[in-house]
Design goal:
CATH architecture: 3-Layer(aba) Sandwich
Distance between the termini: 26 Å
CATH topology: Protein Transport Mog1p, Chain A
Order of helices and strands: EHEHEEEEHEEEEHHE
Strand content: 35-45%
CATH superfamily: Mog1/PsbP, alpha/beta/alpha sandwich
Number of strands: 11
Helix content: 10-25%
Oligomer: single chain
Structural class: alpha+beta
Length: 225
């Protein structure tokens, strides 16, 4: 049984290609922000496909946090073959905070298995570890996988891989990959998130969930067709 990725990841230099990191002292800390957070909902459905001419393999929505001190840059079909990318930045000149790409994938339904859901989760874990992670950290130093676990997203179960690497221009980075098996059909989505640890000091599961990219990934919702 094979899993097909409907893209070619050009992730080498992903974080730095979006925004250059400014050298010098860093005062921004995402977790210290006191301003209220609102959410902007992005719908990827037939209406989106008709408006932008971008095929949507399976309709879904994302809830993307907005904060006054953080700039949001949204891109459809960015360079590299992803479906969409959201970049968060702060300051003048800009500093890269986090980004997250949504990527299309086909994860078989595994209906012939004794436990289809368990097999789909195992296939998802293999996909993240064996195919996506090596490409995501290519060209970076000190790449390491920290954990591969199941996680919950909007009433469903997926798999995430948490790793780290060092970007020569930015510094220590956290990488989070997520696989979201579609509960009704093979067409599914992955996310690839890069977090600047100097500005978003993730130290445990709770702070990881509070990161902007994790809030986006954990809120991915498949829409009824």
């Amino acid at each position: 049984m094979r899993i097909f990725l409907a893209f070619i990841l050009a992730l080498s230099g992903l974080a730095g290609s979006a925004l250059a990191q400014v050298s010098g002292s860093v005062e921004f800390n995402l977790f210290n922000l006191q301003d209220a957070t609102t959410n902007r909902v992005f719908l990827f459905d037939d209406g989106y496909a008709q408006q932008y001419g971008i095929e949507v393999p399976a309709p879904f929505s994302l809830s993307v946090p907005n904060q006054d001190q953080v700039e949001l840059i949204a891109e459809g079909q960015p360079d590299g073959g992803a479906f969409a990318r959201f970049t968060f930045a702060t300051g003048d000149p800009r500093q890269f905070v986090e980004n997250i790409q949504v990527v299309t994938a086909t994860i078989p339904m595994a209906e012939e298995a004794d436990s289809p859901q368990d097999l789909r989760l195992q296939l998802s874990a293999n996909l993240l570890q064996e195919q996506v992670f090596p490409v995501a950290v290519a060209g970076f130093e000190e790449a390491q996988i920290l954990a591969i676990e199941v996680f919950e997203f909007e009433g469903h179960t997926g798999v995430h891989l948490v790793g780290r690497y060092t970007d020569p221009d930015i510094g220590p980075m956290l990488l989070r990959l997520t696989a979201h098996p579609n509960p009704t059909r093979p067409e599914s989505y992955l996310t690839v998130a890069n977090i600047n640890l100097s500005l978003v000091p993730v130290t445990d599961g709770d702070t990881l969930r509070r990161s902007l990219s994790s809030r986006v990934a954990n809120g991915l919702t498949y829409l009824p067709e």
